[in-house]
Each structure stands twice: as structure tokens, then as C-alpha cells.
Amino acid sequence: MTGFSLRLPDELESRLDAEARREGIARSEIARTAIAEFLDRKERQRYLAAFVAEARAAYADPEIRKEALALAEEAVALDNEGLRVAESRGRYGASSASRSRRKRR
């Protein structure tokens, strides 16, 4: 493991010291965790930004937009059909009438 030197403002160093004492861990462990979380967050932000940029570019193309809307309309119809089937079967797949008969027995 490599090391590096870091200068902190006095106030930030005091907060770091206090947190290390509260948690019972080394200041360097807090710094490692903070840096790892920061880098993970930055990578996630870059990935999402690239994804959004790609989606915007694709939707700017009229043909892609038309195809996406057609797929979405088809999916809504399928979702509605699936929901209708699921609701007709009740909570556990049986109709509510047969469930009521079982409860009375």
C-alpha cells in the first residue's frame, strides 16, 4: 500500500480527529473510505451522464424516437393485460370466491 501526504485546514483536521475517536478507527481509515466513496460516486455520475447523453442523442433521431414510442405503447398494453390477469386471480393465484370458501371450512 502506498502513502501520500495531505494538508488539511485546522478545522477539518479537528473534525477528522473527533470522528476517528468516536468510531475508534484510524484517521487514515476514514480518509481511505471517504476517497473510495468519492471515487465511486464520481464514476457513477460519469456513467449516468454518458447514459443520458446517449439517450438524448438517440431520441433526437426521429426514427429511433418513433420506434421507442411504439415499443412503449406495446409494453403498456402488455402490462395492463398482465395486471388484469393477476388481479383476477387474487392474492395467491386463486379467485376470491374460492378463497372465501376455503376460509369458511
Supply database-style keywords.
elongated; 0% strand; 105 residues; mainly alpha; 4 helices; 2 domains
Q: Total domains, how many?
A: 2
Give me the number of helical elements: 4
Calculate the terminal CA-CA distance, rounded to whole Å. 69 Å
Q: State the low-pLDDT regions, or none.
A: none
What Rg, in angstroms, do the CA atoms define?
Answer: 28 Å
Overall mean pLDDT score? 85
* Structural shape: elongated
Q: What structural class do the secondary elements suggest?
A: mainly alpha
| Order of SSEs | HHHH
Helix proportion of residues, in percent?
A: over 70%
Offer a quick outline of the entry.
Helix content is 81%, strand content 0%. It is mainly alpha-helical and 105 residues long.
Description:
The chain has 105 residues and is an all-alpha fold. It has two domains: 9-60, no CATH class; 62-105. It contains four helices and no strands. It has helices at 10-23, 27-60, 62-89, 96-104. It is elongated, with a radius of gyration of 28 Å. It starts with 9 loop residues before the first helix and ends with a helix. The mean pLDDT is 85.
Show the helix and strand layout.
Layout (H helix, E strand, L loop, with lengths): L9 H14 L3 H34 L1 H28 L6 H9 L1
